[in-house]
Amino acid sequence: MFGFMGIQFLSLTIFLMVSVGYSSVSRAMSNEKRSLSKPIPENSYEQILRNGDFLELKNACINASTFALNNRLRVLSKKLLSVAPSPKTYELVMANANAHMACKSPKTAQELLKGINPVSEIERRSWLILSWQAAKAAMDHSKASWALTELVEGDLEKLEKEMLTVSYSKDGVPLKLSALDLLAEHEQSIGRWDSAAMVLLAGRKSGAIGARRIALAAQLIGHLERDKRARLLDKAFNQAYSDKAWWLVEDILRLQFILALIEGDDVKSLRGKLESLAIELDDDYTLLELINSNHSLQKDPSNLRHFLSIPKKDDSKLKEMKD
Fold it and tell me: Is this model's pTM higher than 0.70 or not?
């Protein structure tokens, strides 16, 4: 259990008013849009450096980031460290880390976040998301993977429902991606091919998203030794079968069938299972591909991508496939 630090449910608005003064908050809010319309003039920037409070420095960081003023960002990041409010409560450290993220200083944000222990589930969730954002910005893929995994306590299927902001449009609309896909990217970036593939195969979305994931998983397992690849696919198959995610069961069977075919293995059993499931799913395309598979895939293995990228309907009433 994490230790107690700071007042648990003090709102950020109250905290800012108390720590930097109501007038500063009001001034910062009224000037926010204006400060982003053009770069802060040099004389105003120098004034902020000399006498600016925490919020003014943070807004100056946002302004410098908007207009790619990298020299200002470096100076402002250092200045923020010297004016950070005290004492170091959870709320204050999180605000400070957010300010350094605005100042394009994610490594500093990471160091700050190491120094706090969230108490409640709400605090822990906010802390983990900000830790992931900082690690992602710092290209610390290992720490980013850790934060996402901790966010769902190791339950990969829950990650699919977590939609995290990765950027913003020109109009300020947040652009979001599934945490499942983000975790797979981090695992792939650090060379954990088997883990990245398993993450992708833990997804339960069908259609275009599911097809893209299975195709990417197919590419990733190509890096694995044959025995390890077989174990991974067997595990993914059993999980999908247990969840009655029939479209994914079919995709995994298809992938096992294709790999066995390319490697010259006996595919009679796999063909029978895939054909039975395709009939249950009314998947005429897969049945047609099975007819042509011996020739087309052995002749040109690049057909693998096309063979895997077929969106299929989701039939929740489908009866279980027999062994």
Answer: no
Print the SS3 string covering 56-74: HHHHHHHHHHHCCCHHHHH
The predicted-structure confidence for 29-72, as pLDDT tens digits, reads as follows: 344 444 457 899 999 999 999 888 888 988 998 898 888 898 99
| Three-state helix/strand/coil letters over the chain | CCCCCCCCCCCHHHHHHHHHCHHHHHHHHHHHHHHHHCCCCHHHHHHHHHHCCHHHHHHHHHHHHHCCCHHHHHHHHHHHHHHCCCCCCHHHHHHHHHHHHHCCCHHHHHHHHHCCCCCCHHHHHHHHHHHHHHHHHCCCHHHHHHHHHHHCCCCHHHHCCCEEEEEECCCCCEEEEEHHHHHHHHHHHCCCHHHHHHHHHCCCCCHHHHHHHHHHHHHHHCCCCHHHHHHHHHHHHHHHHHCCCHHHHHHHHHHHHHHHHHCCCCCHHHHHHHHHHHHHCCCHHHHHHHHHHHHHHHHCCCHHHHHHCCCCCCCCCCCCCCC
pLDDT tens readout for residues 91-110: 999 999 999 999 999 999 99
